[in-house]
Amino acid sequence: xxxxxxxxxxxxxxxxxxxxxxxxxxxxxxxxxxxxxxxxxxxxxxxxxxxxxxxxxxxxxxxxxxxxxxxxxxxxxxxxxxxxxxxxxxx
Length: 91
Known about the structure:
Layout (H helix, E strand, L loop, with lengths): L10 E4 L3 H4 L1 H9 L3 E4 L13 H7 L7 H12 L4 H6 L4
Parallel strand pairs: 1-2
Protein name: Histone-lysine N-methyltransferase SETMAR
Keywords: Methyltransferase, Transferase
InterPro entries: RNaseH_sf, Transposase-MT_Hybrid
């Protein structure tokens, strides 16, 4: 949820599938006045499943702004030793 976007307008959260990005699809979204939220590009180096501990840390927390969410994520990483980021993450 994005609190700043809560209103009656339809918001379509699309991924980057070719069918969603086609000229015909984009024309229809425009015609229907849908607001589009782009899905971030897939990165095999940073998959959401790699962050299950972060997800657990954030569970139950609610944020009123992006700044609050960013601060919470930064708080999660603050106690990690520098070597954690330099040497990589291994499972």
